[in-house]
Specification:
Strand order of the largest sheet: 2-1-11-5-6-8
CATH topology: Fumarylacetoacetate hydrolase, domain 2
Number of strands: 13
Strand content: 25-35%
CATH superfamily: Fumarylacetoacetase-like, C-terminal domain
Number of helices: 6
Radius of gyration: 18 Å
Distance between the termini: 46 Å
Order of helices and strands: HEHHEEEEEEHHEEEHEEE
Mean pLDDT: 92
CATH class: Alpha Beta
Structural class: alpha+beta
Number of domains: 1
CATH architecture: Alpha-Beta Complex
Length: about 240
């Protein structure tokens, strides 16, 4: 016991840079166009391609938009480096509430996520969505997850802050009550014809969209905050 006590005294908490993403063998999925602002943003980016109507329809459709975002091993940790695609000209962070779901389709907790996206690529053609959404460094989760059987207060606000050169260049916030979909319904559709033996993470969409003249640049720092869930911070590589 004396040896164990001595060893315990030498244990130190990890530094932020040593944190790992709170995900293991789970898949990470995402829902799209779940907030009105997201619908408007998608319509703006897809206007020239003539695909804007699809985003308007899915917003009110019974079936939600769901897509695969990342394997667990591809998720970026808190304080890790997120990326923009080399062939993209218009990239944005998408701050989102993330559901932690067990194998039985039960929501057991929550965390924060960043669904980094290439708006110009998706806007050119909706069929390019996997390329706009799924690539190395496009998904971060954290800083940890809140384990609870209770629903989050719908007045909870998600805040996005982007810094460049030490200065805030964008800030926005949205309360969870603005989401257009029931969280349980999103989970039901995800699990309807898919099994997840290790459970899954589900990003629930964004209600914060930076202006159309904004794009992420290397060195930008993205901070996503929600009161009960902490702060997810990532720098753009």
């Amino acid at each position: 016991l004396s040896d164990l006590k001595a060893d315990a005294k030498t244990v130190r908490p990890p530094s932020p840079e040593e944190l790992l993403p709170p995900v293991g063998a789970q898949e990470v999925w995402a829902a799209g166009v779940t907030y009105e602002r997201s619908r408007e943003g998608r319509r703006e980016e897809a206007n020239e391609s003539g695909a804007a109507v699809f985003y308007s329809r899915v917003y009110d459709a019974e079936r939600p938009e769901l897509f695969f975002k990342a394997a667990g091993w591809r998720v970026v940790a808190p304080y890790g480096k997120i990326r923009v695609r080399r062939d993209a000209r218009w990239s944005v962070p998408e701050p989102e509430l993330v559901l932690v779901i067990n194998r039985d389709a039960k929501i057991i907790g929550y965390t924060l996520g960043n669904d980094v996206s290439s708006r110009d690529i998706e806007g050119e053609n909706p069929l390019y969505l996997p390329q706009a959404k799924v690539y190395d460094g496009s998904c971060s989760l954290g800083p940890a997850f809140l384990v609870t059987e209770e629903s989050l207060d719908l007045n909870t606000e998600i805040t996005l802050l982007i810094e460049r050169g030490g200065q805030t260049i964008f800030q926005g916030q949205v309360p969870l009550r603005r989401i257009h979909r029931e969280l349980d319904v999103l989970v039901e559709y995800l699990y309807r014809e898919l099994s997840f033996p290790a459970g899954a993470f589900l990003l629930t969409g964004t209600g914060i969209v930076p202006p159309n003249d904004f794009t992420l640049l290397p060195g930008d720092v993205v901070k996503i905050t929600a009161a009960p869930l902490g702060e997810l911070i990532n720098e753009v590589a």
